[in-house]
Inverse folding.
């Protein structure tokens, strides 16, 4: 199940279901990246573009490559997986806007994958479609 879960996380990393996220700053703070920092004032509009963030080469090696075992090998990368309006390791609360169903989404995707691999011996396709299946005997 660990590899199936890693495949789901890698899919969400490369294809986040909500690519743009907006918010207003609740207070003044300093936003830091790897090599610079920005002063953000209370009330300023912020926008996060997930497809760009999830391909940061300083965090993810070979960021454009689909690596099914990426999250199975390095659990710390889950701290950088922000598809649900917060890190995958975080928990939804009254004080944040993290998706309350984030764990159910990943679990449902894992179950769909497990069902597909249980039912079919071979699944062929591309990143956008399934082109052939061979039913399990």
């Amino acid at each position: 199940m660990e590899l199936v879960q890693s495949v789901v996380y890698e899919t969400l990393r490369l294809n986040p279901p909500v690519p743009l996220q907006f918010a207003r700053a609740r207070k003044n703070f300093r936003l830091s990246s790897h090599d610079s920092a920005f002063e953000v004032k209370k009330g300023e509009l912020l926008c996060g573009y997930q497809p760009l963030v999830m391909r940061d080469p300083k965090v993810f090696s070979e960021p454009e490559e689909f690596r099914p075992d990426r999250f199975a090998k390095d659990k710390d990368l889950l701290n950088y997986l922000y598809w649900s309006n917060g890190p995958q390791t975080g928990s939804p609360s009254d004080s944040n806007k993290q998706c309350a169903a984030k764990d159910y989404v990943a679990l449902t995707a894992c179950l769909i994958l497990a069902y597909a691999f249980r039912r079919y011996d071979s699944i062929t396709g591309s990143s956008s479609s399934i082109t052939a299946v061979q039913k399990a005997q």
